[in-house]
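Annex B. Sample input.
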Amino acid sequence: MDNLLRKTLRVSDPRDPDQIANALLNFYPEEADRDRREQAGLPYSSVPDYVPQARNTGPSSVEMAQAQDDLERDLQTLSTSSPLKDIRIEMIGWGRSIRQLANDGLAAARLALDSVNHDRAMSARRQLGEYSRLARYVGTLTDGSAILFRRFAQSCDVLAGLILVAIGEGLASNGITRSTSIVRSAAGELQARRNAVIMALRSLTGSVESTLGQEDWPRGIEAYRNLVQQLEAGGQADLRALLEENALSQAMDDLVDLSTGASVEGLRELSTASAMLVHRFQRLIQFGQSIPVPIDVPITSGPPESPPLVAFVSSLQLFVDAFVSKGSSRLLYVARPPIIVYGLYGAGGPDQGAIRLMNLTIARGFLLEQVDCFAGCGCDDDDISCQVLLDYLLFLLDRAIDLYAVGTDPDGLGEQERRATAVGLAIGAALDLTDQLKNPGVLVCEFSDKLKNKLSVIRDELLDPFGAPAAWDPGLKSLMVRELRIAYQAEDQTERLVRSLTPQCDFNVFNFRNNQSLIRWMIRAILQDMFGLGTNLPSPVQMPSPIASSMASMGQNRPDYWSA
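Annex B, continued. Sample output.
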């Protein structure tokens, strides 16, 4: 045995415990690394950490390599340009952040079938778009360096667009079609939601050990008894079975197992299996919400519901939501030519939202070309203001494309598409602002007829599906107010950063009217003219809502003051 240890572990003295211990650590490096991480207080696992790497394969591999090379050239030019020596350190910081964003975004986009990586890719695209908008803004207000910033912004735009293409390629390479269900919740999150349902059920049925005081009302047991009576009286034997822990666990585990691992076969099975199981859960939720309250007290005097029942219904609804809101596969039509879509990615073809998404991506290329052609007209205040306005509309169009890319409504009328309508309002307001017949002398912009027509087409593409703003329902109007307030607050923060990076020239773009910048003045004009908020609009606009107001609207069913 001593000779075997000497030969296998390469030790000189098999009786020395230190030599044996060190030899075993060298012989089992994975276990040694696990012990090292445990001693350091870090998470440890027998499975090594997975770091996604961008694969340079696929139809867009050449474009990705070219885009990354262009980005490096532009960053090098900005950081070494003599006119920008005052902000050289800031430009180096931009380069470090943008390189990391580009690498993470492209790497995560290839794994977009997983919800976490999909969200990471879309987040990287959004931040690249914000850097692009900031670069154009700074370049417009910096004499002699506008072309350098615009070339850099173009490289950011190309990488941001390639992230969308990479997501579509990742879905297509995994065999995803239009009919495939894509769960936008990580497997670990689904498991946590499942455990929350089981714990809430135990609290409701009284299996959790707890002692009621002499003045405590048995809200959980009473609600459970009423729920069982209603199910038995209604002949809902299948729902009655879900109140048994093992049956409920098995039903939820079937859905979790299909979504775990993000395999295409499991996702396709989930498309049909989830419809039946989720409908069963929804019926139980409806019965749980319809139980009559045993205490006849108005809601304003305190919540009379049974907290254990509310917790059970809410946790079950949270679990169901992961399968009701399916992920979008519209980016298939961005990454793949339309001519091959019919035979490979579903016989139904693109839905209305996907068609609008393709139209917006095509229109964006033409708009970007016209915006860049408009640049470099000089340092006149009107020219600078018009350029800032066009760059802002281009930034908003990218945000509308992002919203349509993640939309799931087959008619293109879902929550994401409704939010994109705010971009149509902004484009319409910009066209009215530069129209000399409607607003003579306010902002003189010599836009070409092609540019005006393309902006009108984009505006109609976003607004026409929902009709005229006068006919909008209160929910859509409230959503538009919230989106415009978010845009106002974001623009206010962007302007502060731009002022710190540009020469202190007295441009009217920062002081357009009523001590407001051009963009913020336009947003306020939309809120005042279209939604009748008048002069009571706070300055600056309060966004997000106060915590007390938001919690009151959630807990007591009262409208949020700041969302109206």
